Amino acid sequence: MDNQRLINISKKLSYHLRHGPEKIGLKLDKNGWANVEAILSKLHITKTELEECVSKNNKQRFAFDESRQKIRANQGHSIKDVDLELPTTIPPKILYHGTVERFLDSIMSDGLRPMSRQHVHLSDSIETAQKVGSRRGNAIILKVDTVGMIEDGMEFRVSSNGVWLTAHVPSKYLSKYM
């Protein structure tokens, strides 16, 4: 499949599995799973195209269940009642978040908030945070003091593709990475 078709399918899949399943009459279960046959029918794609989209997605945004009859997004949902059933996990001592200058004052004042999503997304690598921040301009990397957050009772989860998730990162746990 050509790269542009792969990108288009990935974007549609991402939107409908994370934000707007109802726009195409798709039903997600409480854990975010959608029936593969329904996806194929509603997006007018083949199973081979879907499998290629899942396997070649550089961010590993999607996963099949063990039976390969269901598919879901690994994280990033704006749908409030989706529970990915991710257990709480102890993260590395430092996690990172990529942003840009225009958001920095607000972040340093209010902390990192999930905005329209369920969780704040963090990375255990500077390189990934750099890539995320660079999507909107010149990236600024923030360090997150996870030890302090855990000591204060905050929880972390990690998605199957390695994205660290938390409800909120108060500004006192943030510093600029130099």
From TrEMBL:
<comment type="function">
    <text>Removes the 2'-phosphate from RNA via an intermediate in which the phosphate is ADP-ribosylated by NAD followed by a presumed transesterification to release the RNA and generate ADP-ribose 1''-2''-cyclic phosphate (APPR&gt;P). May function as an ADP-ribosylase.</text>
</comment>
<keyword id="KW-0520">NAD</keyword>
<dbReference type="GO" id="GO:0003950">
    <property type="term" value="F:NAD+ poly-ADP-ribosyltransferase activity"/>
</dbReference>
<dbReference type="InterPro" id="IPR002745">
    <property type="entry name" value="Ptrans_KptA/Tpt1"/>
</dbReference>
<protein>
    <recommendedName>
        <fullName>2'-phosphotransferase</fullName>
        <ecNumber>2.7.1.160</ecNumber>
    </recommendedName>
</protein>
<comment type="similarity">
    <text>Belongs to the KptA/TPT1 family.</text>
</comment>
<dbReference type="GO" id="GO:0000215">
    <property type="term" value="F:tRNA 2'-phosphotransferase activity"/>
</dbReference>
<comment type="function">
    <text>Catalyzes the last step of tRNA splicing, the transfer of the splice junction 2'-phosphate from ligated tRNA to NAD to produce ADP-ribose 1''-2'' cyclic phosphate.</text>
</comment>
<dbReference type="InterPro" id="IPR042080">
    <property type="entry name" value="RNA_2'-PTrans_N"/>
</dbReference>
<dbReference type="Pfam" id="PF01885">
    <property type="entry name" value="PTS_2-RNA"/>
</dbReference>
<keyword id="KW-0808">Transferase</keyword>
<dbReference type="GO" id="GO:0008033">
    <property type="term" value="P:tRNA processing"/>
</dbReference>
<dbReference type="InterPro" id="IPR042081">
    <property type="entry name" value="RNA_2'-PTrans_C"/>
</dbReference>
<dbReference type="InterPro" id="IPR022928">
    <property type="entry name" value="RNA_2'-PTrans_KptA"/>
</dbReference>
